[in-house]
Amino acid sequence: MSRSTAVSNRLRRSPVMLSTLVVAAIFGLALLVPGQLTQAEQVGPKPEDRQITRNITNLIVKEHLTRHPLDNEISRRWLGNYLKMLDPRKVFFSKEDVDGLSIYRDQLDDMALRGDTSFAYTVFNKFLERLDERVRLADELLALPQDFTLDEEMEMATDPDDVTYVKEGPEMRDRWRKRIKYELLDLANDKTKLEGKAAQEKVSKRYHQLSKRMRQTDHDELLEIYLTALTTSYDPHTTYMSKSSLENFEIQMRLNLEGIGAALEAPDGETVVKKVIPGGAAAKDGRLKAEDKITGVGQGVDGPIVNVADMKLNDVVKLIRGHQGTTVRLQVVAKGETEPKIYNIVRQQIELTDSEARSVILEAGHKTDGSAYKIGVINLPSFYMDMSGAKSGRDDFKSTTRDVAKLLKQFNAQKVDAVVIDLRHNGGGSLTESINLTGLFIDTGPVVQVKDFDGQKTQYEDTERGVAWAGPLVVLTSKSSASASEIFAGAIQDYKRGLIVGDVSTHGKGTVQSLLDLGQKIFRGLNNAPAMGALKITMQQFYRPDGDSTQNRGVLADVDLPSLSSQFDTGESSLPYAMKFDHVDPVPYRKYNYVDNRLVEQLKTASAERRKDSKDFQKVMREIAKYNEQNKKKRISLNQEKFAAEKAEMNADKQDEQEMEEMNDANRPVFKRDFYGNEVLSITTDYARMIGAPQAAAVGQK
After folding, report:
1. Range of weakest confidence among 143-152, 154-163, 414-423
2. Percent of the chain beyond pLDDT 70?
3. Hey, which end of the chain has fewer CB within 10 Å, N or C?
């Protein structure tokens, strides 16, 4: 795998959530109208920006776990973060630009305390100026003949911090010359196989589209980037959410929204339907299909159609979303056609079933009587909870624990022999849900300890007697399993209640964030406080019942299976300003007899014997060795023959893209029975056979 592929993979897997603007900046997309001004350039900060900024600085100093003062150290981190978020690969700003902006490196803290965000616009406008120049340079270089037989290389550091800014002039031109050459080579080697003029046009369009998108940046987006550059100077998970980002966050937690039920993307500046969500309004209407282009949106049955060509994706989404029962008019160019059609679709509440718990019962192995083991698998993508529904006292609010309890009830009825909880793609979510979910598998007892800045500890327990599943339990994890996933897996491991299988360790996020609504904080006592976004702030660190934090270390698998993803430098410990590992005193809890060292060693030995004869696992081990060898390299060849050979050596990028596509596929299986999945099932059947049918820890069923 090429070094740039390694970089892009790491950027894609980063758990730090950025706005769509930042994502566009990272990956580069295309036309700039000379002299066109952004809203930011025309107006500058809004009056409420001062209120938001002063409130955030006050909250972060008083409430953040570290209690780090807003001082020159934070100010310098803030400047570095902001520059990195706009220009992570250091190809737009020059060394002279950064040197000039660095005279403010010790002043951002003082400006923030006054609520002054003018520096955000100073930097952003300089960025736009440089972006214009680089787009013109890219077009100039693309028009020149390229010699792909030369033996030259391009610097390609895995960590962007290892790349230095270069001076304006020949150094910057050479960096861009090699960058353009690399992109042309990459297009010639990817699945589109673009070469010559087609490849040149593709690269040019990317940069022109990036320029156009960046010039559509509004106040809220820019403020979100700028203040998140501040908040992530304290730790990676403290972020400012604009009101639109907060709305999207709440949608994800409650797993429903009001709209038509279509996932959209804008790969080349056009709004394209990525998928139609099953059961949604668009799916029931039946006309809108994946890969159709949406070129206009109108409100009501006769509202005028607004042209959305080159409009920001977020703005298109806002036009399409609306209250249940209202009509939206879509101007659509169907895939393979040229003439647009108008679809009137009535909005409805859409259940985001792709993110909820799903189950399947699989057969594997053989018992002594010759019958197969029945394994109940639950795929859990997140720990979701409808927070507003819970606060309002609704009995039917959406909840991970409720959904999983229903699935376990079905498993009991079907008399499964073992249960697998698949958390491989679960990045976390509700702390409450992780505690309650653990309670489905233990009788009662502490699940997690939480420590505040002053060392005060609080333990959260499962207090409800009984279990929903009393038999063999396997928790499947990966390096992407984070936060609430680690609370659940850690508690299951400490209680010796189940077996942890997967990557060597989980992600390593052991901190707790609270969501503070800024409108309510600023306008205390006002029933209808204006929407001003929220501060997601790290206020506590959590610890397992045995006293260990999962921070940086993660939860170690009892039986680890080799995978390429386990090699990626994407864990918590690789993130800037991450909190350190810590330990507190353990709390009393009852250990069960489901796992012990002897059993684990037997399971590991049996798994190793099977994998030794597996061509698929042998291939994974070769890929890991090649990846680690490639990872040591700091430069990539721009010779076409050598580039193609190096690219062919590794397919980690293809594997990563395939996994992402599968995760976004509404028809994806609950559990994939490939070589990896079959080995997980073999470990599970071995485990079920070894422990037999242990006595339930519960006095009753939950």
Report:
1. 154-163
2. 88
3. C
Residue 283 and residue 379 in one domain:
no
Mark out the alpha helices in 88-169 (DSSP H runs). Answer: 95-101, 108-113, 118-142
**Spatial CA neighbour of 473 closest among 416, 522, 409, 428:** 416
* Inter-residue contact 572 to 552 (CB < 8 Å): yes
Q: What are the structure tokens assigned to 624, written together? A: 């890991």
Res 23 pLDDT > 60? no
Q: In this structure, is residue 1 part of a structural domain? A: no
Backbone angles phi, psi at 547, to 5 degrees: 100, -15
Residue 105, pLDDT > 90, answer yes
The token duo for 452 is: 């505040």
Domain count, the chain: 3
Q: What is the pLDDT of residue 653?
A: 55
pLDDT at position 33 is 28
The one-letter code for the residue type at 10 is R
- More confident site: 253 or 182: 182
Residues 91 and 212 in one domain: yes
432 vs 5, higher pLDDT:
432
Beta bridge partners of 263: 275
User: Max Cα separation, the chain?
Assistant: 79
Average pLDDT value for the chain: 87
| Helices within 546-586 (DSSP H only) | none
Please count the other Cβ atoms lying within 10 Å of the Cβ belonging to residue 153: 16
326 and 371 in a single domain? The answer is no
Q: Would residue 334 count as lying in a domain?
A: yes
The answer to whether the beta carbons of residues 284 and 294 sit under 8 Å apart is no
Could you give the CA distance from residue 334 to residue 340 in angstroms, rounded to a whole number? Answer: 7
The predicted-structure confidence for 374-405, as pLDDT tens digits, reads as follows 999 999 999 998 777 667 777 777 899 999 99
Domain end among 351, 368, 384: 351
| Co-location of 444 and 312 in the same domain | no
Q: Is 415 contained in some domain?
A: yes
CB 548 within 8 A of CB 508: no
Judge if 466 and 494 occupy the same domain: yes
3-state class (DSSP) for residue 411: helix
Residue 42 has pLDDT above 90, yes or no: no
- pTM for the complete prediction? 0.83
From the CB of residue 608, how many other CB atoms can be counted at a distance below 10 Å? 11
Question: What phi and psi, each to the nearest 5 degrees, are found at residue 132?
Answer: -55, -50
- 596-603 contact pairs (CB < 8 A, 24+): 596/496, 599/687, 599/690, 599/691, 600/499, 600/558, 600/559, 602/686, 602/690, 603/499, 603/558, 603/559, 603/683, 603/686, 603/687, 603/690
Instruction: List the CATH number of the domain containing 271.
Output: 2.30.42.10
Beta bridge partners, 276, equal 262
Residue-by-residue DSSP string for 466-508: SBS--S-EEEEE-TT--THHHHHHHHHHHTT-SEEEESSB---
Domain assignment of residue 637, given as a range: 355-512+540-691
Domain match, 483 and 545 both: yes
Cα–Cα distance for residue pair 123/114, rounded to 1 Å: 19
Cα separation, 503 vs 680, whole angstroms = 12
Q: Which of 322, 351, 380 is the last residue of a domain?
A: 351
CA distance 3 to 605: 35
